[in-house]
Fold this protein.
Amino acid sequence: MILSGTAHKYGKNVDTDVIIPGRYCNLIDPVELGRHALEDLDANFVKKAKPGDLIVADTNFGCGSSREVAAVALKGAGVAGVVAKSFARIFYRNCINTGLPIFECPQGVDGINDGDKITVDADNGTIRNETTGKEFRATQFPPFMQELIARGGLLRYVEERLKEKASAGERA
């Protein structure tokens, strides 16, 4: 899976309360959630972000409450993935469960500026800053987790696996 877009860079400890403010957590439509992504951190984010763009952040991205809608809101805003030095563990798992690609790459974060064009090869774990020509290696997920993300998250993975078993005549 190749992701390519503009980097939107943020600092340390971006918490789930600014990824999607609590006042919107009653929404269920991902696109509607996406219209409010990061608005308390960067009021212009949804205006400047284009589908396929990536967020680049320092340490502890996604800290705070365990709201799964934070990952859903980023996907709903068209974010293709997040590159960070580190992720809060619950957010990390929520991204996998919802199919939002994430990449831990401290050197990449240091080598990418806001507005740079970047390309991520998720299968190989490489991040290329197209603006500077520099390339970085992210911590790679094991193949099973890559498949979960590629299929759109845990729920879609399970649904597809059940359909595959049903069409093969196997018991679930």
User: Anything to note?
Assistant: The first strand starts at residue 2 and ends at 10. Residues 154-167 form the longest helix (14 residues). The chain is about 35% helix and 20% strand. Residues 99 and 149 are 4 Å apart (CA to CA).
